[in-house]
User: Which sequence fits this backbone?
């Protein structure tokens, strides 16, 4: 059933996959969401880079650095992004302008 509005919301699993991929792109030998960011070679500089990538992808303040330090399992980092980013909703009028050159 649709309500006239569609939500574009990434699931926690999709965000966890994004975190895994982002950490791999940063050079960490990540295998799963239970891996620990720091145990896998993450540093304070790597954390800052991850925060910057997350904010570019999910919005400002979606991943405060203290969240990484308080709970550094990648699954927990993904959960922090889900918790902090807020809902993402695109209404019908915004969708109509996409793909045809309109802004």
Assistant:
């Amino acid at each position: 059933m649709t309500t006239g509005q569609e939500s574009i919301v990434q699931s926690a699993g999709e965000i966890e996959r994004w975190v895994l991929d982002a950490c791999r792109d940063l050079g960490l030998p990540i295998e799963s969401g239970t891996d620990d960011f720091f145990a896998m070679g993450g540093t304070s500089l790597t954390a800052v880079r991850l925060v910057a990538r997350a904010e570019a992808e999910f919005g400002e303040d979606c991943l405060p650095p203290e969240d990484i330090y308080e709970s550094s399992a990648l699954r927990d980092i993904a959960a922090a992004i889900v918790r902090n980013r807020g809902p993402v909703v695109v209404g019908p009028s915004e969708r109509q302008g996409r793909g045809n050159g309109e802004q």
About this structure: Helices lie at 12-25, 44-58, 65-70, 74-85, 92-96. The domain at 6-96 is CATH 1.10.1200.10 (Non-ribosomal Peptide Synthetase Peptidyl Carrier Protein; Chain A). Residues 44-58 form the longest helix (15 residues).
